Automatic annotation (TrEMBL):
Biological process, per Gene Ontology: proteolysis
Taxonomic classification: Eukaryota, Metazoa, Chordata, Craniata, Vertebrata
Molecular function as annotated in GO: serine-type endopeptidase activity
Pfam families in alphabetical order: Trypsin (PF00089)
This protein's GO CC annotations: secretory granule
Source organism per UniProt: Clupea harengus (Atlantic herring)
Source superkingdom: Eukaryota
Gene: LOC116222439
Start and end residues of each stretch annotated as Disordered: 245-268
Annotated protein name in UniProt: Trypsinogen-like protein 3
Listed InterPro entries: Peptidase_S1_PA, Peptidase_S1_PA_chymotrypsin, Trypsin_dom
Coiled-coil annotated residue ranges, if any: none
Length: 268
């Protein structure tokens, strides 16, 4: 019963493996032209995984989209201005086979326009707890079936560190946690990298391509970078590299501020 209530409250509809998210129930979800999924943190910044990081000036972020095959007036396409990997990250593309610190902050070239279909996601103030039910979201497959171009949702349970180490030998860092199905320890198999885990209405995890490629649908849990432990890095980057203009919404014209009134002339 608890699971059914959670699925309904979080806007998921569908079967027991792959769940089509209710349309536009994830206004913070971002599709990057690199093939990754990200999450909108504010009008300028998107958080994703660090695997695809070259040629950021050629990349585009797509916001307010539910079906990647569709086009609607809710859709916003914004060029990527900066791609900032977490400093110590050494990914499998560099042949070091390490998934540690697999996070990147993506700065948009212009601020997102907040609408009912484009909204930021809150960052966590505490870490997820073992046994907590969460929802993983992205575009891809939540099972062994075909990849979907519609947002996919799946309820997952936070597993203990001991279980994660036993079931996934690649899981070893205190900066990670893992999840599995509420019925087993099998992961979500959302492809593409950068799938997003939300617990209690706040962002808790980003799942990189490395984790998907190692354990997808193989009876292993999903491993996530634990966002609660990266707050200082996220806050530092955003505060030091955010432009001074914005934010604005579709309901608030982007007009210059009204100048102060001219003081009356001095009389003698």
């Amino acid at each position: 019963m608890r699971l059914l209530l959670l699925v309904a409250a979080l806007g998921c509809v569908g079967g027991s493996l792959g769940l089509d998210c209710s349309p536009f129930a994830r206004p913070w979800l971002v599709s990057l032209s690199s093939g990754q999924t990200g999450v909108l943190l504010n009008e300028w910044w998107v958080l994703t995984n660090a695997d695809h990081n070259s040629g950021s000036h050629q990349l585009e972020a797509r916001l307010g989209v539910d079906d990647l095959n569709g086009q609607s007036n809710t859709d916003q396409r914004v060029r990527v201005a900066r791609w900032i990997n977490h400093d110590p990250y050494s990914g499998f593309r560099r042949r070091k086979r390490s998934p540690l610190h697999d996070l990147a902050l993506v700065r948009l070239a212009e601020p997102a326009r907040f609408t009912p279909y484009v909204q930021p996601m809150a960052l966590p103030t505490q870490c997820p707890q073992t046994g907590e039910l969460c929802v993983v979201t992205g575009w891809g497959s939540t099972g062994s079936g075909p990849v979907s171009k519609k947002q996919q949702c799946l309820v997952q349970q936070v597993l203990s560190d001991n279980v994660c180490r036993q079931l996934n030998p690649m899981y070893w860092s205190s900066n990670m946690f893992c999840t599995g199905s509420h019925q087993s320890a099998e992961g979500s198999c959302l492809s593409g990298g950068g799938s997003v885990l939300v617990c209690g209405g706040t962002l808790q995890g980003v799942n990189g391509y490395f984790f998907v490629s190692q354990g997808c649908c193989a009876g292993k849990p999903d491993a996530y970078s634990s966002i609660c432990l990266y707050r200082s890095w996220i806050d530092r980057v955003m505060s030091s590299m955010t432009p001074t203009v914005g934010p604005y919404t579709t309901n608030t014209p982007n007009t210059p501020p009204t100048p102060p009134p001219t003081p009356p002339p001095v009389t003698t």
